[in-house]
């Protein structure tokens, strides 16, 4: 039986505006385009699913137009939602402004995903072979962090748990963060988030500290560095920088989610962590050439991209050799 990913993070509706540059205080900008799309944890779920992994969503969705929109988006991707809708509030949303240099600025409004209890999570059952994922967003909400931390700590020891602290890491109380890190099997974070946990330093030094001082049960950590790729540090001692791929970015929204989803999917199929990281780098590179946070490529697209890249490297090398 193929591995299944149980995602217990937060999904929200993104209201996306594209502008040439952020407005200065007191001024107004007219967007060149607008879209209403599923976002937040939805992006990672879609990335893992399109990369070939069976995925179910165990986060909390709301009752109202945004909750209905998210349920329809999950259904369109063939992803089952496990928990019943919140009876008291709608799902949250996020305004995302994408500037001309492909960078993003966000303003978010928490909804049903910010209110979580262990009773709500009763339908979220894990079985042998499952992988579980959670993000820092749910842990940053006062109304959900305790229940989710308790649920993560109660996971069976043989269930791999993947954690992404996200940019809101500073809003997670340190005792909660420490509890979740102590149960983490794979930590995936960007360089700023890694430094927030383990202090400043070069990527390898920070990765070593993450494993030695914060993630004692982890198999490894991945520190993402955008277009430069990522660094993988294994608990057994191996370290490798996995270079990124040169592409023309039009929208970096969701690139980190795509990277994590593709990485977990590749690991679950038996790829080595280094191979999985290269696969994830390719997925993220493809995603930034497309508009939208849930622009993750399929497994076929990723494999074709890697094959074309490898062929180009071979041809370039042969050409250099002939010239020499």
From TrEMBL:
This is PfkB family carbohydrate kinase. Keywords: Kinase, Transferase. PROSITE patterns: PFKB_KINASES_2 (PS00584). One of its GO terms (molecular function) is kinase activity. It comes from Mesorhizobium dulcispinae. Residues 4-296 form the Carbohydrate kinase PfkB domain. It holds the Pfam family PfkB. It comes from the Bacteria. PANTHER family: RIBOKINASE (PTHR10584:SF166), SUGAR KINASE (PTHR10584).
